[in-house]
Amino acid sequence: MRSGQGLEGVVKVSGATKNAGLKQIAAALLAPGETVLRNLPPVGDLDVMTDLLRSIGAVVTWTGPEELRVNASGDLTPEAPYDLVTRMRASINVLGPLLARCGEARVAMPGGDNIGSRKIDMHLSGLEAMGATIEVRHGFIEAHADGLLGARHVLEFPSVGATENLLTASVGAKGSTVIENAAREPEITELAAFLNRMGAHVVGAGSSTIEIEGVDELTPAESEIIGDRIEAGTLLMACGIAGGEIELTGTRLEHLEMVVIKLGEMGMRVSPTPDGLWARAPRRLRAVDIATLPHPGFATDFMPQVTAALSVAEGAAIVTENVFDGRFQFVDELARMGADVRNEGRHAVVRGVERLSGAPVRAFDVRAGAALVLAGLAAEGETIVHDGHHIDRGYPDLAGTLRTVGADVERLES
Ligand code: UD1
């Protein structure tokens, strides 16, 4: 991509396939029959999830460009193989539904990945508290349960994945379950609403305490996937970096409050519209400190992009990553573009420079890749982001979306 004149125009935010859709597809395994999911644009991770569901025995069909049907009526093979789990960590989300539906599950143990160690101890201890026996053998989690029982969970950290697995395991459990210190991300609220449409009794999702009353039967439901708040925030930051004025449709201020507050402190004007957000960038952003936290804090999935924005802002900022322990690898790539970033452990000091310089760089993960694309918008000359397939895992067409608001970005075939 090359830097240009600033962004201008209206963009429709894509459906949140990666962070909301994948979880609902996994939850479809709970109900024999046909689940319909809409506003589900294809991204790389969706291919892995559909491969996984097919290998489990569900029939998965596209019935429109963004409409997927999952029929989980037949006999299921409750197994998530190693090659799929290593391609996508969200594969772990089938553990709760498979255990609930089949009484057993064998899921390859996810390892660390490019953003940190990513443990799953809370998923496993939570399921054990519900009566499951779990063994980790030869790289696989082997879980058995002769009927799960409701339990009270107090999570050590509001993990998104642990909250989702315990939620999907508990909807069909005997008795009531409480999840304290639950993750409060909007995707959890959406998953709970979807489960309730399937006949579950879940209250409190979106708050720190979720209560679930187990039901005997779940039936398939339909779902319209929410707009992707991470894509929306990425576009706001693109505007902050490149300059200009954009409007986003299909997103909601309440999903992005902390990002909007921080971008406001950086000098952007962002306000709600009937169907989304309007944003205008200042001539140059101002530096502000950022610390990531679980929702409604500043999301870790925006950390790389905001670091790219800070690298051309006026002043110096400290960025603190509190959620994942290895998420700063990408700053070395930013430095190749002339950014002045020093990282030590969970902190990075970013001293804004007037201009970055276009360079070949490498994407290590989906959000870091997006951050490098954004940095390219502020760089003199051409930037080539290698390993762009990481970006495609979560963004349906980041280059195309940025082009609609005037950015000079194209996706090169690998
Ligand atoms: C999900 C999102 C990811 C987002 C993250 C945090 C998807 C597909 N991924 O990932 O985009 O960045 O939430 O908002 O939706 N942890 C433990 N033990 C556990 C579980 C988690 O120690 O049992 C730790 C992890 O190592 C990590 C932190 O908790 O440091 C947060 O992880 P978690 O919220 O579970 O993230 P994911 O669900 O993997």
Written description of the protein model:
This protein is an alpha/beta fold and 414 residues long. It has 2 domains: 186 residues, Alpha-beta prism (UDP-n-acetylglucosamine1-carboxyvinyl-transferase, Chain); 198 residues, Alpha-beta prism (UDP-n-acetylglucosamine1-carboxyvinyl-transferase, Chain), CATH 3.65.10. The protein has 14 helices and 24 strands. Strands 1-14-16-15 form a 4-stranded mixed beta sheet. Strands 3-4-2-13 form a 4-stranded mixed beta sheet, with helices on one face. The mean pLDDT is 96.
Task: List the topology elements.
Elements: E1 7-12, H1 17-27, E2 34-38, H2 44-56, E3 59-64, E4 67-71, E5 79-80, H3 82-87, H4 95-102, E6 104-108, H5 121-129, E7 133-137, E8 140-144, E9 152-154, H6 160-170, E10 176-180, H7 186-197, E11 201-203, E12 209-213, E13 222-224, H8 229-242, E14 244-249, H9 257-265, E15 269-273, E16 276-280, E17 290-291, H10 303-310, E18 316-320, H11 331-336, E19 340-344, E20 347-351, E21 356-357, E22 360-362, H12 366-377, E23 379-380, E24 384-386, H13 389-392, H14 398-404
Parallel strand pairs: 1-14, 2-13, 5-6, 9-10, 17-18, 21-23, 22-24
Antiparallel strand pairs: 2-4, 3-4, 6-8, 7-8, 10-12, 11-12, 14-16, 15-16, 18-20, 19-20
Helix pairs in contact: 1-2, 1-7, 4-6, 5-6, 6-7, 8-10, 8-12, 10-12
Overall pLDDT confidence: 96
Morphology: globular
> Which structural class should the secondary elements be placed in?
alpha/beta
Multimerization status: single chain
The CATH top-level class label of the largest domain: Alpha Beta
Q: What count of helical segments does DSSP give?
A: 14
CATH architecture descriptor of the largest domain: Alpha-beta prism
**Runs with pLDDT <50, length 5+?**
none
Biggest β-sheet strands, sense, barrel: 4 strands, mixed
Strand residue content = 15-25%
Q: How many separate domains?
A: 2
Number of strands: 24
